[in-house]
TrEMBL record:
Cross-referenced Pfam families: IU_nuc_hydro
Superkingdom in the source lineage: Bacteria
Domain (Inosine/uridine-preferring nucleoside hydrolase): residue spans on this chain: 6-303
Record's keyword terms, sorted: Glycosidase, Hydrolase
Protein name in UniProt: Purine nucleosidase
Gene3D superfamilies membership: Ribonucleoside hydrolase-like
CDD domains for the chain: nuc_hydro_IU_UC_XIUA
Listed PROSITE patterns: IUNH
Source organism per UniProt: Sulfitobacter litoralis
Length: 313
């Protein structure tokens, strides 16, 4: 099986970290051409620091990591330290990174990589606000037809929002970018809150991460111990949703997930519903389907996959 070439676009964030670790542990299925960092959960200097910390934790210092956009296309940056802590990777006590960032801007890396690889061979995996992806599409419209697939975490319909009543954080931070991406014509798979809120890290599941016993397993358990307090208090759930690893798990075993190919448009005008993913789940409009919008997963299978892969590092 030829591994799928991907670029991970990310704003680590503990859940981004788990998504990156699982991808790094899966070279038979996933060939990470590079990691591009964007401002989101925390500012860019921290997301680009955290991505390096995660790769060093996994012993993968050869991964190319690029810094990208430090603010949304047309709005002030909104961050989420209240969820992820002031560093964005609170929980484990991990050393400062020693590896350097790759030369060049993340947006140019995305453009160059898509142009240098055959059309339809590179998958983009955004785990944060879509600023880098949209900027690349604006700067080089020709890349839209070269993207094999965009598999992103973002949005919500039945679950509503998590940063406002109607908007999920990644889309809310940069709704203009999301609008560009969802109108790009590239094939899109969406992992919205509707599915990620079913991927709850219960105590038993986090204990399984900790029982791996490796520095990676222990660090992931400590990340989750920190990260989950916000969602457990807010939703009264018995664990935090592991949002971003749904993207990586889909790349490895898409059969874990189910959803519908529907039209999804982004609210970019009303401040009341800014960043809402208007998902035509029931097909009540004549708007053309543009995204596969997931709403269910095999949660036990998902966590079994994550635990097995994390144990490989
Ligand atoms: O709303 C959840 C998403 O926002 C996740 O990607 C999390 O890391 C934050 O970026
Ligand atoms: Ca993220």
């Amino acid at each position: 099986m030829t591994p799928r070439k991907i670029i991970i676009d990310t704003d680590p964030g503990q859940d981004d970290a788990v998504a990156i670790l699982v991808a790094l542990a899966s070279p038979e299925e996933i060939d990470i051409l590079g990691i591009t960092c964007v401002a989101g959960n925390v500012p860019l200097d921290l997301t680009s620091r955290n991505a390096r910390i995660v790769c060093e934790l996994a012993g993968k210092r050869a991964v190319k990591i690029f810094a990208g956009c430090d603010r949304p296309l047309g709005r002030d940056l909104v961050t989420a330290e209240h969820v992820h802590g002031k560093t964005g990777l609170d929980g484990p006590d991990l050393p400062e990174p020693t590896m350097s960032l790759a030369e060049g801007h993340a947006v140019d890396f995305i453009i160059d990589t898509l142009r240098e690889n055959a059309p339809g061979t590179v998958t983009l995996c955004p785990l944060g606000p879509l600023t880098n992806i949209a900027t690349a599409l604006q700067k080089a419209p020709d890349i839209a037809d070269r993207i094999a697939k965009i598999v992103l975490m973002g949005g919500g319909y039945f679950e509503g929002g998590n940063i406002t009543p109607t908007a999920e954080f990644n889309i809310y931070v940069d709704p203009q970018a999301a609008d560009i991406v969802f109108k790009s014509g590239a094939p899109i798979v969406v992992m919205p809150l509707d599915v990620t809120h079913k991927a709850l890290v219960t105590k038993a599941r986090n204990d399984a991460f900790r029982a791996i016993g490796s520095p990676v397993g222990i660090a992931v358990a400590e990340m989750t111990d920190f990260f989950e307090r916000f969602d457990k208090e807010k939703y009264g759930s018995d664990g935090a949703p592991l949002h971003d690893p749904c993207v990586t798990a889909y790349l490895i075993n898409p059969d874990l997930f189910s959803g519908r190919h529907i039209n999804v448009e982004i609210e970019t005008q009303s401040e009341l519903t800014m960043g809402m993913t208007v998902a035509d789940w029931w097909g009540v409009t004549d708007r053309a389907p543009n995204a596969t919008f997931m709403n269910d997963l095999d949660a036990d299978g998902f966590f079994a996959l994550l635990t097995e892969r994390l144990a490989r590092l």
